[in-house]
Write a structure and sequence with these properties.
This protein is α+β, with helices and mostly antiparallel strands. The protein has one domain (4-46). It is 43% helix and 38% strand. Strands 1-2 form a two-stranded antiparallel ribbon.
Length: 47
C-alpha cells in the first residue's frame, strides 16, 4: 500500500493523456508536492 497521493497522481496523469489523445494533440504539465519539500512535475506532449 502506497500513499494515496500516488494513486491520485497516476489517475490524473492517465486522464490527462486520454484527454490529449481525444483532442488529437496538446501539451500539459501536471505537478505535485508533498510535505518535506519533495516535488515532481510531469510534462506531456501528444501529437
Amino acid at each position: 500500500m502506497g500513499h494515496p497521493q500516488g494513486a491520485t497522481a497516476l489517475r490524473a496523469i492517465a486522464e490527462m493523456i486520454e484527454g490529449l489523445v481525444l483532442r488529437g494533440c496538446g501539451h500539459w504539465l501536471i505537478q505535485g508536492r508533498a510535505i518535506g519539500n519533495s516535488a515532481m512535475a510531469v510534462p506531456v506532449n501528444v501529437g
